[in-house]
Queue: 4 jobs
Job 1
Amino acid sequence: MKFVVERELTEPVSLTLPSGDLNPAAVGWARRPLVDTSGIGSTGSWGRNKRWEYWNVSTPSHVLALTVSLIDYAAVHEVWIFDRTAQRAWGRAPTLIPPRGAILPPSLDQGPVRAVAKDFLVEIDHSDGIVRLHAEIPEASFDVEVVRPDRHDCLAVVVPWSRRRFQYTVKDVALPAVGVLRIEGAEYPIPAGQSWAVLDHGRGRWPYDIAWNWGAGSGLVDGVSFGLQVGGRWTEGTGSTENGILIDGVLTKISEELTWDYDLAEWRKPWRITGGGLDATFTPDYDRHSETNLGIIAARTDQCFGIWSGSFAGFDFDGVYGWAEDVHNRW
């Protein structure tokens, strides 16, 4: 099944048919999380269902990240905290087989998110337009409030590999954040106006072997909120992309595959991402490299953090903090 023209979804729609197959009416992109994903995990394709919430919060001094995920046969979670100046990290990443101690709502914003494991706690709650993130590991904890402005688009996309393999992703960048971080007894502010949150919400049924690029950046450019969301490889040939630029809360969708030019062997060299009116340079200063090989489950991630600069449709940007990554999973 191939879909060659992206269309904008404007009304609620179910991701799946009663059979559990992809609903063709859901294929497209939206500025709001309009897709009902309650069918994921309930009908067939055991082992291929993937559900997760990933939040990343950047502050002037630190990066905070949390993941709660269920992949049918395992619960895979993480809390990660990074000191941007000292380039020191703290974290826990429990994998629980069989999955236990985790709650994910059937669709975005339809209930709390919880993950509990040894020396590990994540809680995510939504109310009155505010998302509250709470995480605890032995060395550190944080409490963050993420506020969605009244006028703020996200990028929600359904990616169809086939009628039985598909993914619904919501990428939400440049969300204002405020709160407090605690590390080894010291407190660090997460200051309003200088801290930004990014959401990656996923529900779908994935191929076993997949590789992708993902890049995101958030900040102020001449006093205007700016968000960059780019992806690659995993969407090729599907007719869908997850590319867009957010300026003052308004999304401009980029409906073509972008060109990624970088070399992981020399990851400190600037990365170039171009196409669809975007000419972006990403200059990394830290590579968060990880590898896992549990036999049937294996993953390799290079998530580089640094600064985005460039232009899009006549809008110039510079000094925007974020990341660009190269990932290969067998899961």
Note: The chain has a mean pLDDT of 95.
Job 2
Amino acid sequence: MFARLNKDIACILERDPAARSRLEVLTCYPGLHALTLHRLAHALWVRQWYWLGRLVSHISRFLTGIEIHPGAQIAAGVFIDHGMGVVIGETAEIGEGCTIYQGVTLGGTSLHKGAKRHPTLGRNVVVGAGAQVLGGYEVGDNAKVGSNAVVTKPVPAGATAVGNPARIIAAEVDAQREAAASKMGFSAYGVTQNDDPVSLAMRGLIDSAASQEHQIAMLWQALETMRKNQPDCAELPADAARVEAFEADKINQILGK
């Protein structure tokens, strides 16, 4: 028990720049207190002392403002920062290294007893303040849930979920889009990541331009190879354009950047 407590204290000191000492963490962090009391409540729950487990959970809620059902499974190294208003349901599972901010709900959408009604968080998941993760879905390892997002579907590992209802942003796709746009003197992140028509159209144009650039580069390689392998092949026209022309300044002006 003390080894696990030491691990919890160490993870808080590592992730919270406001934490100054182990004594401060041990005495002044309600997230740590709630998790410690939850382990007692969970131990009672798995031994089928349900009423006593719920009583300990209720006392913990009264003292810390954090409500964790005694049936929830929480690994070591979980950090509940600030924590007021956090609600974690009975069948929720939280992996090692997760960080949960205030006002988060890991809730259920089913009324069937015994069913998997609450979400499963993988390792090192970050759930922002006020986010709601609802249903027996899985949030993959290293994923992030943005503040006030409402998640009602699985979140892949390493992805980010934002908005209400939550949209899944794949980090790899956004990185590719930004790399393609930066070559044109334009920032893809200057385009808002919401669902308005202008945003979607601009993101589509960036992706299309990147695809066309790749196809044109492949055609130039094929033409150069053909010319080298066939000496009698006619020279390419002198005015053949080898560089794409993308008027980034005009796009930026339209978007008010």
Note: The chain has a mean pLDDT of 80.
Job 3
Amino acid sequence: MKSSSIEDRKRLYVLDTNVLMHDPSSLYRFQEHDILLPMVVLEELDQHKKGLSEQARNVRQVSRQLDEMLSSNSDLEAGLELPYAKGRLFFQTAAYRQQLPDDLAGGKADHEILAVTLALQGLHPDREVILVSKDINLRIKGRTLGLRVEDYQNDRALEDADLLYTGVHPLPADFWEHHSRDLDAWQESGRSFYRLRGPAVAHWYPNQFLLLSNGEDYREDFAAIVRSVAPDHAVVERVTDYTGERHSVWGIRARNREQSFALHLLMDPEIDFVTILGPAGTGKTLLTLAAALQQIFEEKRYSEAIVTRATVPVGDEIGFLPGTEEEKMQPWMGAVEDNLEILSRGPEGAGSWGRSATQDLIGKRIRIKSMSFMRGRTFLEKFVIIDEAQNLTSKEMKTLITRAGPGTKVVCLGNIAQIDTPYLTETTSGLTYVVDRFKEWEHSGHVTLRRGERSRLADYANEVL
């Protein structure tokens, strides 16, 4: 690439391989600025193009995009026009001689990318050259060499994970003073509805929970769910209290207000998509499985439950473990098995035969599936549970959620504080992405669980360790 072929007013971004593997559309995300791909990046793309993983699919998509652009542009020195962007794409067409520190041995892909960026910085002193990488260690090395390095930011759903929608809106103590003047109330099929008008209405979302606490006893709180939002009013409904025996779900009662909210979403047939966030021990999996069994066996709303989870590394083949697909997934499904053991105990006094019969009955309606084989499938009248969803990218979440057919409910569970997938953070996780994107849809709901209910030992350990 010649110095004269680039406009000095634009920035020049050097992309690492992991950026393209993470987001194949990243080539079009830099607006009017130019992009350069080092030759070693093309070599690494070629090494990762085979396989059924999501990363391999992304690499093949990038390769097709590059081939299409190259077929319509012949002057590489002038750069390729980027669709949907005003910048141009350049390739490394010559060897750049740049001396790296002795500690950074040549031949390693990361170090070659650093060498190319350093050389470009010297060739274009009047231009801002920026290395973009998802690799934290590469960014650290780049900064020690005096380079400007950045993380790939375009896939962020939020600037800060603390801003993530919680699904619960606490009402101020003087709420009724400002919202009770034009209040309409009515009963419908044993349910209580209110039409509210006031300044706070404009900031509510469909299926968001409203909570006005009256003291330490949460049974005395005013708790409602927003059913519809208009510019000048909102319709809310008093929520069912699942903490009482009368409203237990498959023998499970909520132990706190947030769990009651979660069960309300899980049991509502009008809500097709539910996301539940929370740390370990808050009851995400137990509540979801209880709601699934209740609606499969008692209410006949769904034919069966499909349970899957993000294995690490995500999307790779299961491997060479013996057995069927479900048997290969067993090592990843320990949490589900533990909760199913609780839910399949059966009534007291049923004995070992009764428990065995209940376990067999439940086992026939709970299917454990691998994410590796989800593409192309359509689930009809299924209760789909995606566990450990924080380890999925936004594209992988889209692939799974779009499997839902008529009559299917999809529930995503996870804890964005425990992300095991490389290059994902709390703000770029697919779970964060769908929580933010679905909050305005009238058939989705979200709640964040905060209080652990596993045991007093577990609660104390979380506090002091």
Note: The longest strand covers residues 222-229.
Job 4
Amino acid sequence: MKKDVQNNKLQVYANGEIVYKLKGKVVKVTATWDFEAPEGAGDSHTAFMRGKLCNVIIKQGKEEAYKPTLYIQANVTDSLSTFEGKLKKAVEQDIAANYIGLKLIKLSDKLWTVEIPDQYKVGHEAHFGQVTERYLNYLKLGKLPEWEVPDMITKYYTTTEALKLAKQ
């Protein structure tokens, strides 16, 4: 690793940001690896997906007690009550048909959170175990599922090309 040490600091390509277009839509991905998580926290995740009618946001900061929390923020001003009715139906009827107990909680005129029952919250370590189990099964079978292949190719192409650009 000596080749990667400059001024007594290890130079690594761990933190970064990629901004690109995918099928005409702007995509921005930022990865930040802190030396240490804030007290009371572990690995955290934040996601922000912009849509025409609403934004879907996942936060896991201090305000959320470092627990992943799903928010829905309306972008519409006209027909807000219609939007809310459709959102409530989607969460509490359509999605809850497979995930019983989901509940939509209104926080303000244009902001809701989705209350997710504890039975669906497996935690970071248990989730890591589930992912590992699936991976080992794929390894045993000698192949990935068909749906995974294009996603993996895209992910690794994007990240390796981004690293090439970062090194220029």
Note: Strands lie at 5-6, 9-10, 16-22, 25-31, 47-50, 54-59, 69-74, 103-108, 111-115.
